[in-house]
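Bumping with the actual sequence this time:
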Amino acid sequence: MKSTVLKAWMMACARLALVFLLLTCFMTGTGLTADKPSVKTGPVTQVTSESFTITGTANPNGSTTRCHFQFGTTPQYEQGSSGNYFAGSGTSDMTLMLVIRASQVNAVYHYRLVCENGAGVSYGADMTYKTKSSD
């Protein structure tokens, strides 16, 4: 009889521990489904007389994620999308960069980072950079 009661008690404790673990995962957001990627458009770096580098940060949030930059001289990003980056499927931020050849002087370029995974598409904020004059 003691053996049967002990086994039943151990099974009840194991079930309770599993319920506690599942509730903890649910409450902290560590579930079985992934979120859309977290995306942040970053600053311009590495400026030269002929080019500049646009940057951004992506966090896949646990789901296989691909990213690209949109850019152009208007907020419609008429120069299209460039770069096809595999951002992985982890939960850490990843920095992405793209070199843009500046063909116009004193031009304002708009750019943003866009990432997509199975949970959806995320758009970074529109950022701008003004190229230097030819002086």
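The tokens above came from a reply further down the thread. The chain has a mean pLDDT of 83.
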